[in-house]
Amino acid sequence: MSLGRGLGALIPTSSGPVPQQTIQKITQETLRQTGEQIFSIPTSQIEPNLQQPRKNFSRLEMEELTNSIRSYGIIQPLILTKVGVDKYQIVTGERRWRAAQVLELKTVPAIIRTMTEMEKFEISLLENVQRQDLNPMERARAYQRLTDEFGLTQEQIAQKLGKARATIANTLRLLTLPESVQQAIETGRITEGHAKTLLSIEDRTKQEIFLKRILGLGLTVRETEEMLKGRAILRSSSSDPWLLEKEKFLSQQLNLRVKIKRKNRGGKVVIEFDSDEELKELINKLS
Questions:
Q1: Exposure class string for 47-59: b at 16+ Cβ within 10 A, else e
Q2: Does residue 235 lie in a domain region?
Q3: Do residue 14 and residue 97 come from a single domain?
Q4: Which residue segment(s) compose the domain that 190 sits in?
Q5: Domain boundary among 69, 87, 116
Q6: Are 209 and 181 in contact (CB under 8 A)?
Q7: Alpha helix positions (H), 115-262
Q8: Is 108 helix (H, G, I), strand (E, B) or coil?
């Protein structure tokens, strides 16, 4: 199914966001090809799509976006559908709309399109997944919805999102974990790598027990794997509460295990990852 006229030019096709300085040129070229127009829509007439896959918005990301819009304005128009008299629903651009509300902007630039519910959900999911905006549980629920509501197979989902079928299947398996584990993933207290390790345990009670050990001891994925094999974990930890707090903060922001090692006046920050996908996500966040 088509993702909408000209949408491919507005959504990055590789990991990482499109540089801001190129977005305006891309948008204008898309509009020239499709004959669409950018309208100034009153911010008060726009509502979010409650069915969109992304539910959590980072406060830091929102602050950065708000500051950018304050300085440069909204460069990339929102994509909206009309849902009533003087009423529009967001397909893409909810963060921009939220930032506009904070800045008390009266209007925002937008492209108005007619779409089915399937097309709206596909576009919203694709935009968030390509930009690495969804956490693992949001991705899993979105994939499940594509299966339950729209009848797509894992192979079809993989093709639409440009991912391997095994990646889709592994992400969907997260939904079989206990609620406590799912919440830990969603809040960034453990990584998707930790979750995949816990999936190797069949007993749900044991999964919750090992979750507590991971959180209590601050285990890396590799250390978790060693513990599951019954091996002792030998590790050194900082006794500096300030450093421990900063390690926790960075780990939550990056969704990866972070260690800070001090040496005299300096030191180093070690960021651990357990797959090529986690490395790519890390590079995207740092860039």
A1: eebeebbbeeeee
A2: no
A3: yes
A4: 177-228
A5: 116
A6: no
A7: 117-130, 136-148, 154-161, 165-172, 179-186, 192-198, 204-217, 221-228, 241-254
A8: strand
Catalytic residues: 94
- Can you spell out the DSSP letters for 23-85? HHHHHHHHHHHH----EEEEGGGEE--TTSS-----HHHHHHHHHHHHHH---SPEEEEEEET
For the domain that residue 165 is a member of, what is the CATH number?
A: 1.10.10.2830
Residue 217 within any structural domain of the chain:
yes
Phi-psi region of 151 (alpha: psi -120 to 50; beta: other; left: phi over 0): left
User: For residues 139 and 147, is the Cβ–Cβ distance under 8 A?
Assistant: no
Considering the domain architecture, whether residues 204 and 248 belong to the same structural domain is answered as no
Considering the domain boundaries, does residue 124 fall inside one?
Answer: no
The strand pair at 87-92 and 46-47 is best described as: parallel
Relative orientation angle of helices 241-254 and 276-286, to the nearest 10 degrees: 100
Structure token pair of residue 152: 């797509």
With H, G, I as helix, E, B as strand and everything else as coil, classify residue 226. Answer: helix
Q: Does residue 16 fall inside a structural domain?
A: yes
74 pLDDT band, cuts 50/70/90, is confident
Bridge partner list, 84: 87
Q: In the predicted model, what is the mean pLDDT of residues 70-81?
A: 85
CB atoms within 10 A of CB 198: 24
Give the torsion through C-alpha atoms of 257, 13, 157, 195, to 10 deg.
0
Report pLDDT digits (tens) over 248-286.
788 777 877 788 877 666 778 888 877 777 788 888 888
Beta 87-92 vs 257-263: how paired, if at all?
A: unpaired
Global pTM reads 0.53
- 136-148 and 154-161 helices cross at what angle (nearest 10)? 120
